[in-house]
Amino acid sequence: RAVPTISDIVGSLKSKISVEYIRHIKNNILDIFGDIWQRSFHVHTIRNNKSLYNIREYIINNPSTWDNDGNNINIFVGTGL
Predict the structure, then answer these.
(1) Which residues touch 37 (CB under 8 Å, ≥6 apart)?
(2) From first to last of its 81 residues, what are the pLDDT tens digits of the chain?
């Protein structure tokens, strides 16, 4: 049996979450449309302390950039896009 890759694991997780999400939407009769996942993900192997530090900083600071993120559908509301 082959060892699953990171892509296999992420794909499986996204699939299971998507099924539960859709079930929740249908059970609660909600009108929600659109994608729930970004198309891909970036894999980075942490090889040293500097890399670990940079990734931690990104995780800590990234939420503060959400208002300008292209994946944030709220920035398009009312713009006609």
Answers:
(1) 14, 18
(2) 889 998 888 889 989 998 888 888 788 876 766 677 767 767 778 899 999 999 999 889 988 888 888 777 776 665 545
